[in-house]
Amino acid sequence: MAAAEPVGAPAGGNCSLAGGGSVPVLFCFSVFARPSSVPHGAGYELLIQKFLSLYGDQIDMHRKFVVQLFAEEWSQYIDLPKGFLVNERCKVRLVPLQIQMTTLGNLTPSSTVFFCCDMQERFRPAIKYFGDIISVGQRLLQGARLLGIPVIVTEQYPKGLGSTVQEIDLTGAKLVLPKTKFSMVLPEVEAALAEIPGVRSVVLFGVETHVCIQQTALELVGRGLEVHIVADATSSRSMMDRMFALERLARTGIIVTTSEAILLQLVADKEHPKFKEIQNLIKGTEACIMTFNYSEMAAQPCISETIKVNSTPNPLLKQEYGALAYFPLSTWKILHSRQR
């Protein structure tokens, strides 16, 4: 339901004009009813924000919703009237429609922002294939600069963990922010997002997959944004943690993809003025088989369908994939980068 311009309380509604300040409102969702308040004169958008703050962890953001108002004259809920303003104590509810929205995953530069999460020096010896994700992360940031896409960067407790690695060029980043919270969704980040008109999609990469990346992705989805996690630019200390995090996130509707897919989707056409430059970025690195700590996985009793990599060529690995590729747990393929 599109937000209507608040032009005044409709005639015949259950809200009458009152003074300034806040107005008590009962917010209902599913079987829940929570009293709260909104500023006098609040419209559709503020009501939606309040619903998200009260029920964000329970709302499936991949569905369509309608806001309804309890009308005394009908003794039942009606769809929120056009131009509705909260001027008096009232009761509203958020109703999910039965048709579920499909997450298509379309990306355009004008509606996309890149999030680079905690690519810091102290993580270098601990994170698996850190060199690979630095290389791919730098390629993504170069692509963002070419396409004019805003970049938001965080650093987890830089006093103790150091700054972003020198290989990552942060020239032109919209925001570089220290944090202690695991998620990147901080008030400063939310304010920066609000300054970007029409932002719909976040491309997210960095470390660690099962902690900061996972928590950031879930918070962003809870705020109505579509999240694309770049599998070949995110890792953890443990491949087990990484795999299960990506599996969980994919099942929630978050898009797990690769850097090449992201960059080519953003240019979309061979005739794009930046296509040649993006193509040259992509040609910098390609895929091959990498060393893998098989014993770390094999020791887990829950893993029964692991592909063991040894000196014998594996026919499942003939195709080329990006570094640290993601696959469902039933068909693991262990891969990494090489020069073409």
TrEMBL record:
Pfam family, one: Isochorismatase
Positions of the Isochorismatase-like domain: 112-260
Domain of life: Eukaryota
Similarity comment text for this entry: Belongs to the isochorismatase family.
Protein name as it appears in the record: Isochorismatase domain-containing protein 1
Designated gene of the protein: LOC101881720
